[in-house]
Amino acid sequence: MRVGGRVEWFLEPTTPEELRSAVNACRERGLAPRILGGGANLIIADGILPGVVIGTGRMNRLFRIWPAVDGEGSSDQEQDPSAWSAEPSGRVAPADPALDPRLVGWAGTTLPSLVRAARDLGYGGIEGVVGIPGHLGGGVAMNAGGHWGELWDHIELVRVIDEEGEFLDLTPEQVQPGYRNGNLGTRVVAAAILHFEPAPKALIEQRMREILREKNAVQPVSERSAGCVFKNPDLEVSGGRGAGRLVDDCGLKGRSIGDAMVSPLHGNFVVNRGAARATDVLALIEEVRAEVAQQTGIELELEVKRWLD
Ligand code: EPU
Predict the structure, then answer these.
(1) How many A from CA of 277 to the centre of ligand 1?
(2) Domain with 191 in it
(3) What CATH number has the domain bearing residue 34?
(4) What CATH code is carried by the domain that includes residue 240?
(5) Whose alpha carbon is nearest atom 11 of ligand 1?
(6) More reliable by pLDDT, 94 or 146
């Protein structure tokens, strides 16, 4: 969104272990750190934000699964911690990617680089999240996605830092993620193992292009925004209308405060036309929410995260 101020403390771990140390160092001092992924779905208040932010930008690592060496560890990833590491000693990645269509991503892997890497390896399925910005950690935490798929559709195992500050590996069955909700509570995503369906690269590429074409036609993708502002409401209650359609029906497209404007293209996006402040964006969001509630009786729930104080 390109709005908001600065943070008091900013930590940049480079590995899952450093991330765990950073989280624990904060907690030991009675601080609850905020975790920053790519910031793609986030609005940060103007001014100085007190406390600690831990950014995952330097944890941009994606690699193939390293098979267990005979007699060492086990092929079960849950019992094989070295599978989460980029360079386990004495191991060689399988020659043929199709033999094991999985990838390990650390929290700072960008979603666009994940989608590109999967395409280049002939790993299908994840192209459904093409065009979504941000990091893997944030994407898992909020179960990023859309009509063509969600991140958790491709997760085999997530390694989180739990409330006790320990690593914990969780399956989708244990987590039960929902719509735009990774259901992880205060646990911090350190890494994930993703699984794919082998597919011809050309087919994956074609699907990516089709999805991007459709998205570009209906969303202000090249403008500064924080993605969809509101979650879609229960469609039975809203008569099948998503949040964007509701805002549109209420005549709010183009409404603006300062340089913050409800996108004329899609009602669920607020765009920064240049010099918007966080205060403008936040006030506009509240205005839209109140107006939709008044006109339709539907209380929209925020999808974007706000860091206010
Ligand atoms: N519509 C309108 N007016 C608008 C916007 C939409 O009439 O201003 C209509 C469209 O014509 C369409 C329907 O509403 O018939 C649904 O719109 P769209 O296809 O754009 O999908 P959406 O439900 O608004 C969801 C996700 C997006 C995701 C797209 C595509 C939510 C809140 N939004 O949008 O996610 O990109 O599907 O997969 O779930 C995000 O999470 O940040 C996000 C942008």
Answers:
(1) 25
(2) 62-204
(3) 3.30.43.10
(4) 3.90.78.10
(5) 245
(6) 146
pLDDT in tens, 135-164: 999 999 999 999 999 999 999 999 999 999
Contact predicate 160/168, CB 8 Å: yes
Q: Does the C-beta of 138 come closer than 6 Å to ligand 1?
A: no
Tell whether 104 is covered by a domain.
yes
Name every residue whose Cβ is closer than 8 Å to that of residue 292 and which is 6 or more positions away in sequence. Answer: 246, 247, 250, 252, 298, 300
Question: Is residue 150 lining ligand 1, measured as CB closer than 6 Å?
Answer: no
Annotated catalytic residue 34: no
CA distances from 206 to 156, 210, 222, 249 (A): 26, 6, 21, 34
The CA distances from residue 60 to 35, 110, 257, in Å, are: 15, 7, 36
pLDDT in tens, 219-268: 999 999 999 999 999 999 999 999 999 999 999 999 999 999 999 999 99
Tell whether ligand 1 has an atom less than 6 A from the beta carbon of residue 98.
Answer: no
Pick the atom of ligand 1 nearest to 230's CA. Answer: 32
- pTM summary value: 0.93
* 142-152 exposure pattern, b = at least 16 Cβ within 10 A, e = fewer: bbbbbebbbbb
Ligand 1 atom nearest residue 144's Cα: 41
176-213 pLDDT, tens digit per residue, is 999 999 999 999 999 999 999 999 999 999 999 999 99
- Examine the domain organization and report whether 76 and 199 are in the same domain: yes
pLDDT digits (tens, 9 = 90+) for 262-294: 999 999 999 999 999 999 999 999 999 999 999
